[in-house]
Amino acid sequence: MKNDRLTIIKCAVEEIKDGMYVNLGIGLPTLVANYIPPEMTVMLQSENGLLGIGAYPYTGEEDPDLINAGKETVTAVAGASFFDSAESFAMIRGGHIDLAILGGMEVAENGDLANWMIPGKMVKGMGGAMDLVNGAKRIIVIMEHVNKTGESKVKKACTLPLTGKGVVNRLITDLAVFDFTEEGMVLSGIQPGVTMEEVLSNTEASFTISPLLQSELQVSKGDRHE
To answer: Which pTM does this prediction carry?
Structure first.
């Protein structure tokens, strides 16, 4: 795995607390399951009807009947349960999911999320993302900061079809961490080895810097000056 993706995943794991019910989106978020500390009791939920997802199976130990919403083979932890999609979405829509960690194609400075389709490309459907962003108690989006052509995915306004309006609580990228508050989009962290200049040059959205990070940057600048 690329180091920047591992940085994102490890940062996302810090959002998970003991005893939580968590939904992991398709793609990068599913890898979070492999990094949850073994001493932590967390129940991972999948829209296709599984509560209690474990880590990915080892090669040769896959069970083709045990899959997540992305059709990937998974494992089940002790105490896991299986149910139909209606029950699964009742959990989501009923507000029983503490945290959803989702991938993103674009996130806007007002917390809008676009992550389900690119116009002109074939998609199987919208999946459960629209339900999750409105039903889960907290929404974390993890993604790379720029797309394959080097354009910022952290936008002033989303250009792709929206999954939800103003639904993102925190955005974690390979460059930075942003929180979405009543005062707007706030830069709350910079990833190791990344400079403020890199964050600014790769972010289309407007944002403020949290007081705590501002203090850390000033101390760091002072150290470099010395």
So the answer is: 0.92
